[in-house]
Amino acid sequence: MRQGIHPEYGPVVFRDRAANYAFLTRSTMTSEKTIEWEDGNTYPVVDVEISDVSHPFYTGTARVLDTAGRVERFERRYGKKG
Q1: Helix (H, G, I), strand (E, B) or coil at 27
Q2: What is the pTM of this model?
Q3: Is the model more confident about 82 or about 1?
Q4: Largest Cα span, the chain
Q5: Neighbours of 81 (CB within 10 A)
Q6: pLDDT (tens digit per residue) in 1-36
Q7: What's the number of CA atoms in the CB half-sphere (13 Å) around residue 7?
Q8: Which secondary structure element, helix H or strand E, spans residue 72, and what is its range?
């Protein structure tokens, strides 16, 4: 690997503000904000809008659209062609 061209890779805390959830991982992302983690060390923190804890697909609260019902409702409202 060439020296000096790659971003710094180190521990970062990602915090999901919507779910009040945070996890420590390694990343090339950086931030001016810091947080004191459970192990007593201070790490940069990156706030994210959504994570696996708050995303509807992962939490099981995703809604399935009834496309057949929508088509039938459209045909009733505007008439079936053909």
Answers
A1: strand
A2: 0.62
A3: 1
A4: 71
A5: 5
A6: 688 898 889 999 999 888 888 999 999 998 999 999
A7: 8
A8: helix 67-78
